[in-house]
Automatic annotation (TrEMBL), chain A:
Keyword vocabulary terms for this entry: Oxidoreductase, Pyruvate
Assembly behavior: Heterotetramer of one alpha, one beta, one delta and one gamma chain.
EC number: 1.2.7.1
Gene name of the record: porA
Coiled coil: none
UniProt keyword annotation of Oxidoreductase present: yes
Residue stretches making up the Pyruvate:ferredoxin oxidoreductase core domain: 262-364
Species this protein is from: Thermococcus indicus
Pfam family, one: POR_N
Protein name: Pyruvate synthase subunit PorA
Domain Pyruvate flavodoxin/ferredoxin oxidoreductase pyrimidine binding, first and last residues per copy: 16-239
UniProtKB/TrEMBL annotation, chain B:
Cited NCBIfam families: PorD_Arch, PorD_KorD, PRK09624.1
Metal-binding is among the record's keywords: yes
PANTHER family: PYRUVATE SYNTHASE SUBUNIT PORD (PTHR43724)
InterPro entries membership: 4Fe4S_Fe-S-bd, 4Fe4S_Fe_S_CS, PorD_KorD, Pyruvate_synthase_PorD
Source taxon at top rank: Archaea
Presence of keyword Heme: no
Keywords recorded for this protein, A-Z: 4Fe-4S, Electron transport, Iron, Iron-sulfur, Metal-binding, Repeat, Transport
Molecular function (Gene Ontology), one example: metal ion binding
Name recorded for this polypeptide: Pyruvate synthase subunit PorD
Cofactor (UniProt): [4Fe-4S] cluster
Domain (4Fe-4S ferredoxin-type): residue spans on this chain: 44-73, 74-103
Oligomeric form and interacting partners: Heterotetramer of one alpha, one beta, one delta and one gamma chain.
Length: 394, 105
């Protein structure tokens, strides 16, 4: 029987790692995800997890150790956040290029300067071009589940790409919620043993990994990473379906909430989705036709699902805790790409909010709604809007 | 010019690598170095004067690649597909039978 325990998302991520039975975990402590490797090191020390726990001197080394271990053919895990993820940056490309199904838990945190340990998505969003799959959790249960699903997708032969699962710093990492821990046997059946077909260490069949590619081969190698990302869309759907069958919890690349007759749809990711759903309920009571949509999967970007969502609304209001300079938020860029050649498309209005852990309240969302309603009425509005900005101190 | 002693290897590896790319661009058999022609980034190339050569083999011994092999009469043969133009052979040659000249295409 699955047990329910009250825990933080950091502990949920550690439990997910324990259930997935990685053979090597390499990690360096960083706020807010420090508790993840701490908890895993307890599991290893208590003999509950049979794995090598490597204490490294930086995140650059942590991910390098994971690349080495994964190339040797075992399941690996690490956790990080913010500057730590940024320090992993160059190795993230290597992991994806070498097609190693490493999984990272990321406590989504703002990037310096100024130094800030609180939540936004700038760390993982900045790594969107590395080739890694990206999942975003709304709550602690999703943090656990999505890590298991991430392994399932990453290790699929048609994908073989590393994956990161983001959960919001402090809002989730340090907040307790009841989390259902699935049965080990069911997880074993769901994930199976990791049996690498290509990347493994076998002295009787020597291979070269991390090869040099001349111009004659490099482009093809990069194309295979693109192709694997494209394949991942279908594999993710299959993994979600199988997860639901086994564990009863349903996941979708884009989860829609009260979108059926909505004129304005708020689109967001991570824990903010909970607030926005609540806000939609609040507006619906007043008879305002709004809906919400949550991006569970950000890479590969669910283009078809976005197109289907866009058909339902007159205005898409993107609520983003990241900033891509000159463009607005990263979602704005991705939504534009998905809809640019559609004959009928809704207006897209971008909202930057909640950076560096600033609370996103109903009052902020009212501010966004007012702008979205103007767009709905055909009035001219700014494409990119900063919400909750303290203009008086600027 | 004598035939490269690596001809069979080159053909075998070329065949393997013309087939489907493995995930992660893994080289599944040894020998990719004979396919990747590393001579392409050379600036200076060794020019050989057979009349001055005393067949001491110093160039053959010192070539770090090795891109020099010996023909039937034990004269050195330069494999320009792999010679990077480092000039060690010219430097070691006691009779100046090898000189480095700027590569022209």
């Amino acid at each position: 029987m699955p047990i329910r325990k009250v825990m933080k998302a950091n502990e949920a991520a550690a439990w997910a790692a324990k259930l997935a039975k990685p053979k090597v975990i390499a990690a360096f402590p960083i706020t807010p995800s420090t508790l993840v490797p701490e908890k895993i090191s307890e599991f290893v020390a208590d003999g509950e997890l049979d794995a090598e726990f490597i204490k490294v001197e930086s995140e650059h080394s942590a991910i390098s150790a994971c690349v080495g271990a994964s190339a040797a053919g075992v399941r690996t895990f690490t956790a990080t956040a913010s500057q730590g993820l940024a320090l992993m940056h160059e190795i993230l490309f290597i992991a994806a290029g070498m097609r190693l199904p490493i999984v990272i838990a990321v406590g989504n945190r703002a990037l310096s300067a100024p130094i800030n340990i609180w939540n936004d998505w700038q760390d993982t969003i900045s790594e969107r071009d590395t080739g890694w799959l990206q999942f975003y959790a709304e709550n602690n249960q999703e943090a656990l589940d999505l890590i298991l699903i991430a392994y399932k997708v990453a290790e699929n032969e048609k994908v073989l790409l590393p994956a990161m699962v983001g959960f919001d710093a402090f809002i989730l990492t340090h907040t307790v919620e009841p989390v259902e821990i699935p049965d080990q046997e069911l997880v074993d059946e769901f994930l199976g043993e990791y049996e690498p077909k290509y990347a493994y260490l076998d002295p009787s069949r020597p291979i070269t990994q991390g090869t040099l590619a001349f111009p004659a081969h490099y482009m093809e190698a990069r194309y295979t990473v693109w192709e694997a990302n494209e394949n991942a869309r279908k594999v993710i759907d299959e993994a979600f379906a199988e997860f639901e069958k086994r564990f009863g919890r349903k996941y979708q690349k884009i989860e829609e909430y009260r979108t059926d007759d909505a004129e304005i749809i708020f689109v967001t990711m991570g824990s903010l989705a909970g607030t926005v759903k609540e806000y939609v309920d609040h507006l619906r009571e007043q008879g305002i036709k709004v809906g919400a949509a949550k991006m569970t999967v950000y890479r590969p970007f669910p283009i078809e699902e976005v197109r289907a969502l866009a058909k339902k609304a007159k205005v898409i209001a993107l609520l983003e805790k990241n900033i891509t300079f000159s463009v607005g938020g990263a979602l704005f860029q991705d939504f534009s790409r998905a809809l640019i050649n559609e004959s009928e498309k809704p207006k897209i209005v971008d909202f930057i909010l909640g950076l560096g852990g600033r609370d996103v309240t109903f009052r902020d969302l009212d501010e966004a709604l007012a702008i979205a309603q103007k767009a709905l009425n055909g009035e001219a509005v700014d494409e990119v809007n900063w919400i909750g900005l303290r203009k008086e101190i600027l | 010019m004598a035939e490269s002693p690596f001809k069979a290897d080159i053909e075998r590896v070329q065949k393997e690598y013309s087939e489907k790319m493995t995930p992660g661009a893994i080289a599944t058999i040894p020998g990719s170095s004979v396919v990747n022609k590393t001579g392409s980034w050379r600036v200076f190339m060794p020019e050989f004067n057979r009349d001055k050569c005393v067949r001491c083999y110093l160039c053959y011994i010192y070539c770090p690649e090795p891109a020099i092999y010996l023909d039937e009469e034990n004269y050195p043969v330069f494999d320009y597909d792999y010679c990077k133009g480092c000039g060690v052979c010219a430097n070691e040659c006691p009779t100046d039978a090898i000189i480095m000249v700027r590569e022209t295409k």
